[in-house]
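Q: Can someone sanity-check these two? First one:
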Amino acid sequence: MAPFCSHPQSRLCLPWARPPRWDEDGFLADCHYTRQANQTVFAGIRAVPPGCLLFAKDGSLDIRPYWDTVYPAKETLADDRRSDADVIAGFRAVLDEAVAERLVADVEVACYLSGGIDSCAVLGLAQCHLSRPIRAFTIAFGEEMYNEESAARDMAKLVGAHFIPVPVSQQQIADSFADAVWYSECPMINGNGTAKYLLSKAVRDTGIKVVFTGEGADEILAGYPTARRDLILFNSDGLDANDAERLLSELEAANRVSRGILTPHGDIAPGLDVVQSRLGFVPSWLHTGSNVAAKLVPLLRNPVRERLARVSPYGELLDSIDILGRLFGRDPVNQSLYLWNQTILVNTVLTYLGDRMEMAHSVEGRVPFLDHHVAEYVAGLPIRHKIRGTREKYVLREAVRGVITPEVYNRHKHPFVAPPPHSGNDALSTFCQDVLRSPLLDDQPFFEPARVRSMMDYIATIDLAERAPYGAMVMTIVSACILQQRFGLSAS
């Protein structure tokens, strides 16, 4: 019987384990944002998919689903006549109950707090149930565009929480990036996971063992800018082309920190047409992932490029999805959310932005937005309750309006993104350059060192504003080098 572990690290350290090897298909899928829920980047190691049970008996394994998101058909949602007031009240009730249930603990429960509505909503509702000030910990970045300390401080003051900023510099991210990759056990496209690693360490150093987090709200409530882009392009029947172009321009202007990570930018990678042919549209987040892949594919070693030409990361993802049962006849926005939640939510948001960074320091993260009652309630809502005009998470804003600041209520989505290695002179840029100019790049099996170094030379010549979209590409390659070094991986 194959051993079971909570982390690949444990499996790879067993004395009888085979030497660790890369799963080439898993890594290439990760580069395209299409790694499936049961895939890892380690050969011979698979994950139990979310919402599933694994049964082991007489030497055989059986994986059975027990829960999944079920979006109603588009026509069913169109017939929903519930008033805004009824929908808002219903959502407030299920979310408040989810928060209250997660306050039950033998130890103090604190809260991770940003300037966004998700964590602010959780803090506001949690404080209503407590007679003591809840401790709220906020990452404070040095660059103003990425720093949410001021909005978080005002939020904590409004509800009477104890505000604790945790400064995180580019130097700290550079110093801890390799450790964060080790715990994440997968490539990281930004320093945000490392920032969560540092935050969790700071929280544990204060003696806190349990925290609320706001993860999952964007996944169920269509909070990312890609979901609003999908609405403009694929859900807005009869929208004038000029109006659509204007709305897309406004969306792009309001999400500068997301360029190249959460919003499309640049060329697309080969193979995306299979998504168009099978779904009838290309979800914007897959479009964005294709932009990242398009920057990575030319840098691959020739044998890897030849292998990629024979496989289809997009086709393999869609082959794993029950398209007829879960996507057919649904709103494009909901189809996009479902695919995101089967990939990015599992492999990114709940791993290197969540559980693995928290548990690296023995901190338990509690996620009210992913309570199944909350998720089921929201899945049954028409899109207009998730996105109203171009304002995301409408029902959440209205449900918690009385426990958040006006700034948070009116604020557009500001994704949790750390400053990328874009200036060329910051500590993170130096760290990336050091890794990619070292033998670590030569040792990994995916990227051709000469091509990577040539690309780094090119990036140094372009305008600072144009460098940010290359950050995800650079961090992916650096992550591959670190994974290679830390796990001692060989080619599959």
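And here is the second, same format, sequence then tokens:
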Amino acid sequence: MVSKRVILVLTAVVSGTIILGALLIQFQLQPRTSNERIGVRPSAVLRVNAYVLAGYWTRNVNTDLPDYISTIEYSVSNTGNAQAENVNVTVYTDGNLYTTYIIPSLAVSQANSSSFSTSTAYDSRDNVKVQASCQDFTDSQAFSVGSNLPRYWSEPGISELYVTPKEVNLVGMENAILRDKFFLIPNWIALRDWVGNNIKYRYDNETHGVGDYWQLSKETLELRTGDCEDYAILLCSLFRADGWSPNDVYVVLGTNGEAYHGWVKINFGILGWYNIEPQGNGWNTLIGDFLSLSGFTAKYVFNDQQYMPAK
């Protein structure tokens, strides 16, 4: 015969089991987020995406030398499962702070986009870094920008960059040549004589290892060597530095059959236009220049401000 005490104990156990089961069922029926189900704490996750959108060549107003302008587009997105607050975006160019700003909030799956432009000297690269950070996460992307200057007979917008009448080394040379010349010699002859007498002709494949390589006047002055277009670019730059109008002096690019050549032409006003062979000197004036350039047909002319078909 079962005692009353045993009955009471069994009753208590059954009641407790029923109550515990009810509580467990109620707990399981409560709605939970996916993060609670997998045990992940809600957090923001930032992603930075940056790339070069476009680029073009221009003249540096301070150095008078070519610069490459890169337009960079970037975005900061939140790929996490919680809103990002006070996102700090910082952009560096070549290790220097370019800009920094705060995005007050960035919702889940939301992106914030922007763009900027940076200038790089010719034949060089700059490092760009875009970084974004918030309370939970930091991400960044780094890459290089810049370009090598095209070193050949090129389209308008690039050829003009080779004539550099304000470049500091060229201005210094122009001043020195005219300071030391005999006072009865016209400036244009003194400049032409210096180029013809002090620059040594050398093929591009000897100097640069390629068939065609245009030099900036600064480079020709440093090397003291060059080929036909290098002589012409240097002499035109010196004439422009001496005050010749961009309407009155040009580098000329021409051909004679398969041969290609570069020379200079200047306008003497009532005396008209005159073609100069920059590899010669003052003794070449008139007869020597005519003989050197005989048979060549001008195709294009340019200086630091103009590029156009020869008339």
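A (reply): Looked at the second one. The first helix runs from residue 4 to 29. The first strand starts at residue 46 and ends at 59.
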